[in-house]
Amino acid sequence: MIQVQLIKELKEYIKTQRVSGKSIGFVPTMGYLHEGHISLVKQAREENDYVVMSIFVNPAQFGPNEDLGSYPRDLERDTKLAEEAGVDLLFFPQVNEMYPQDGGISIHAGAQANVLCGASRPGHFDGVLKVVTKFFHLVEPTTVYFGQKDAQQLAIIETMVRDYNFPLKVRRGATVREPDGLAKSSRNVFLSKAERAHAPIIHQAIQLGIEQYKLNQNIEQAKQVTTQHIENAISGKIDYVELLSYPNLTTDVSNDTTVILAVAVFFEKARLIDNILLDRKGE
């Protein structure tokens, strides 16, 4: 596995692959890899000739009171996992390499960023679009891979790729879970023993909410079932429980659209998110 930190070196390797006609699969991450990331690498490995992974804790998507400084990092461990998973090139730039200048031009996410996580994290998805736009230009991937757990992020990136004709495909990867249902997340390490015991209830609550929605398509009842299950059994504080259309993320939900039931819960040192998508076939 090739390891590079500099954009110049990255582009040299990418040029070689493109000249030889190889397809490039790209898995962007912020590191502290878990099975969810590895599943995306495996998907990219199956569908492409060459696999690139990035590890970059992007400061542009963190607010002033968020956990940029304490976000978990372990590059040595990540490097080993990436190589074992079949990554061909690992790109792990420093901040001054990715953002050497600021000319004042910015990218703004649209209405999709005003709900769910975006409602309490203003500017977060602007920062996400900033970094993925740079990565898309640098890596020039055939296909990029994002996990369904970060469903709002995925929807916004899909919209940007569609609306601005990025020459690549976006692949969705299913949420990878612990045996008890907790969605894999780099932030799970911040949970106390008691919080870790409570955390799987989030997924249980979403499942109950989805089953309620299947019965009568009543959005408020589905949200109420989800909320009550969490409040009755968990120590964390609910940030939101929402049922919206997907990927548009609006309240205009009809029987012929996919919907998302999404939840975010604050614990003492971590904020966990989870969701379930339900298509018009009830799957």
Describe it.
- This protein has 283 residues and is of the alpha/beta class.
- The protein has two domains: 2-173, HUPs (Rossmann fold), CATH 3.40.50; 186-275, Pantoate--beta-alanine Ligase, Chain: A,domain 2 (2-Layer Sandwich).
- It has ten helices and nine strands.
- It has helices at 7-19, 35-47, 75-85, 95-98, 116-120, 124-139, 151-163, 193-198, 201-216, 219-233; strands spanning 2-4, 24-29, 50-55, 89-91, 143-147, 169-173, 237-246, 258-266, 271-278.
- Helix 3 (75-85) links the parallel strand 3 (50-55) and strand 4.
- Helix 6 packs across helix 7 (151-163) and helix 9 packs antiparallel against helix 10 (219-233).
- It is globular.
- The mean pLDDT is 96.
Instruction: Estimate the global geometry from the Cα principal axes.
Output: globular
H-E order: EHEHEHEHHHEHEHHHEEE
Class inferred from helices and paired strands: alpha/beta
CATH class of the largest domain: Alpha Beta
Oligomer: single chain
Can you tell me the CATH architecture of the largest domain?
3-Layer(aba) Sandwich
Count helical runs: 10
Full CATH superfamily name of the largest domain:
HUPs
Strand content: 15-25%
Distance between the termini: 39 Å
EC number: 6.3.2.1
Pathway: Cofactor biosynthesis; (R)-pantothenate biosynthesis; (R)-pantothenate from (R)-pantoate and beta-alanine: step 1/1
Protein name: Pantothenate synthetase
Binding site for (R)-pantoate: 61, 153
